């Protein structure tokens, strides 16, 4: 019976786990195309210092480090008083909020890229660097930090609560498996976009020269995929029943019978 229960729990989690790929795919853009954007923006801080392009990724980490204690110490207790839930909101609600932030990240990043490209084409220097501060990349990266705060941590919270104690290691490994799958999925989407676009005289969206490409369209495409993924997740979450709550009910009934 215990083995059957573990299999049922695993099968229940799989649809929710599968929805995490599109959300985590946003992280692949942070280490690739976001850095490419930074290379074509003004990274000077003062007259004598130029920020390394890879350092822009620190903004998502800073956002996470600031917002995580605020969420645990301030927001969660306030939500607990309103919702009467031990964690303020359910794990599925937390995951859904993270998915919405991933969509916002891609939309805002696309809008920033559109402005950067327009600035580069009209006023760029000889090396193609736009006269636009790299700090414009920080707002979308702040949304990316919120994706981890809600989406990724929400998945971890769900797995730890729903899986039996003997399956906790499997639950934690699902996070890394989702991250690996999202990386391959991002590469697949990029390959398809690269092969499909750039025909009939139109620029390739993912051209090596991002000033000639349309990286903003690629970002909006991922945002659209994220929106479809959110609808799929919402349909799965509506019919999901928490195993932990069922166990709590069973323990109460046992106490009454005893």
From TrEMBL:
InterPro entries: MFS_trans_sf, POT_fam. It is a multi-pass membrane protein. GO terms for cellular component: membrane. The chain crosses the membrane at residues 7-29, 49-71, 92-112, 132-153, 174-197, 217-237. Gene3D superfamilies: MFS general substrate transporter like domains. One of its GO terms (molecular function) is transmembrane transporter activity. Keywords: Membrane, Transmembrane, Transmembrane helix. It is found in: Membrane. The keyword Membrane applies. Belongs to the major facilitator superfamily. Proton-dependent oligopeptide transporter (POT/PTR) (TC 2.A.17) family. This is Protein NRT1/ PTR FAMILY 2.13-like. It comes from Prunus yedoensis var. nudiflora. The lineage of its organism: Eukaryota, Viridiplantae, Streptophyta, Embryophyta, Tracheophyta.
